[in-house]
């Protein structure tokens, strides 16, 4: 039976199995190469994508420890208002054309995660959020495929033999994001910006 809001966090949910769903049970985004990681909400047991599981709440059944929860449960448990919800939702909903026109840097880069094949992504670091890298499928997309908060990432700019020539990696504990530019000049432009962003410094605009 569906969880009643009053019971959220008070008892452990039944976990929906990964193979029972092909898309996020909250935003309906299909689990594909970029958004394929499935996460479980520890409050309702639903399978959600990383964007919808990017919330934490204290759950009673787990000794009030902080647990990953989906955004719906988060708002019920926290009792959060709509304006905060808009702010959180806003992050991936920014249209690419809008951020590209007001960005520190933007261009196509090849992107690879883990052992997946390289794929082309339109990458943007917006001026108003100069520490976040947005990845779009194409320059006119209305919704980002993914965002990477750059702060704290380590930058590795020496390509391995299997990599594309002008590549670099961003690593933080277990997550590794590989990028490759079409030429060395573009790679250096990105690195200049990223080296500052990972330290929390706002980069100068590279697009002028």
From TrEMBL:
Pfam families: FYVE, PH. GO terms for molecular function: guanyl-nucleotide exchange factor activity; zinc ion binding. One of its GO terms (cellular component) is cytoplasm. It is found in: Cytoplasm, Cytoskeleton. SUPFAM superfamilies: PH domain-like. CDD domains: FYVE_FGD1_2_4 (cd15741), PH2_FGD1-4 (cd13236). InterPro entries: FGD1-4_PH2, FYVE_RhoGEF_PH, PH-like_dom_sf, PH_domain, Znf_B-box, Znf_FYVE, Znf_FYVE-rel, Znf_RING/FYVE/PHD. Residues 102-199 form the PH domain. Residues 18-74 form the FYVE-type domain. GO terms for biological process: cytoskeleton organization; filopodium assembly. Keywords: Cytoplasm, Cytoskeleton, Guanine-nucleotide releasing factor, Metal-binding, Phosphoprotein, Repeat, Zinc, Zinc-finger. Residues 19-69 form the B box-type domain. This is FGD4 protein. It comes from Alca torda. The gene is Fgd4_0.
